[in-house]
Amino acid sequence: MKGPVKPRTPARKAAPKKRAPARDAVDWGALAAAARRTRRRAHAPYSGYAVGAAIGTRDGRIFAGCNVENASYGLTVCAERSAILHMVAAGARAPVALVLVAPGAKPVMPCGACRQTLAEFAPDTLPIRAFAARSGTSRAVTLGELLPHGFRAVALAHVD
Ligand code: THU
Known about the structure:
By secondary structure, this protein is of the alpha+beta class. It is built from 4 helices and 5 strands. The chain is elongated.
């Protein structure tokens, strides 16, 4: 005698194709190479502190910069702002990542002026990686972590 009819297992839906793991769209290696290369061009005769920076933009381009010091010390331009100036002059406006390479064994973070300049073009989520030239160690942060509550152009809409 036949036993109870087994309910048919419902036709299985085809297993969803495994997605490739979300690739990091940012080519950090290329950015770090550009920052290191450009650091060698720093004009830092007063501090001896050569810094390189590279910004990756949404369209896949890379804009690098280095610090350019001046005998009138206050006119010094940091590597990060130099990279931003390159980016804007080339018609790009959407940074997606920044790499900074500075001397020493510990990574250092962009100065306050550069944070504010970055905030003009980048959202709080901008990923930043700072590399220490001597040790190669790096630290990853976001612009929002470095500049919480940053001042942005939208505030200018409110004039009392
Ligand atoms: N400097 C940068 O280029 N980026 C920074 O984030 C901090 C400081 C430069 C400015 C100056 O030429 C030298 O490092 C020492 O302050």
